[in-house]
């Protein structure tokens, strides 16, 4: 079962990388600041598809300790590779969550 977990995490990170590379070109031209980005809503179609919530049910698994979050530690809303162009709440969670190495 451990191999399945590692494979699943590898696939999640791979998917996030592809999304980040594809959409990230806009961010390279003009760096995004979390304060400039609109906040992701739970009603957003992509957020619904990934079961995003602003408040994580598990205190050990939240956006603040996810490998996909970007920006400065300490900011309440930060950019995420999964939701380009939007800021996620550091207390939030989605099904793409991957523990920081």
Layout: helices, strands, pairs:
Blueprint (H helix, E strand, L loop, with lengths): L1 H28 L15 H5 L27 E3 L7 E3 L12
Antiparallel strand pairs: 1-2
What does this entry show, briefly?
This protein has 101 residues and is mostly helical. 33% of the residues lie in helices and 6% in strands.
CATH architecture group name: Irregular
Q: Please report the distance between the alpha carbons of the first and last residues.
A: 20 Å
Read across the widest sheet, the strand sequence of neighbours is 1-2
How many DSSP-defined strands? 2
Indicate how many domains the architecture comprises: 1
Main sheet properties = 2 strands, antiparallel
Report on the structure:
By secondary structure, the protein is mainly alpha-helical. It contains 2 helices and 2 strands, in the order ααββ. The protein has a single domain, classed as Irregular (High-Potential Iron-Sulfur Protein, Chain A). The chain has a two-stranded antiparallel ribbon.
């Amino acid at each position: 079962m451990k191999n399945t977990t590692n494979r699943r995490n590898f696939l999640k990170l791979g998917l996030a990388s592809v999304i980040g590379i594809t959409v990230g070109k806009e961010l390279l031209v003009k760096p995004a600041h979390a304060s400039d980005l609109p906040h992701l809503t739970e009603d957003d179609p992509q957020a619904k598809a990934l079961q995003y919530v602003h408040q994580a049910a598990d205190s050990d698994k939240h956006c603040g300790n996810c490998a996909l979050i970007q920006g400065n530690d300490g900011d309440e809303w930060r950019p995420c590779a999964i939701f380009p162009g939007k800021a996620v709440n550091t207390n939030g969670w989605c099904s793409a969550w991957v523990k920081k190495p």
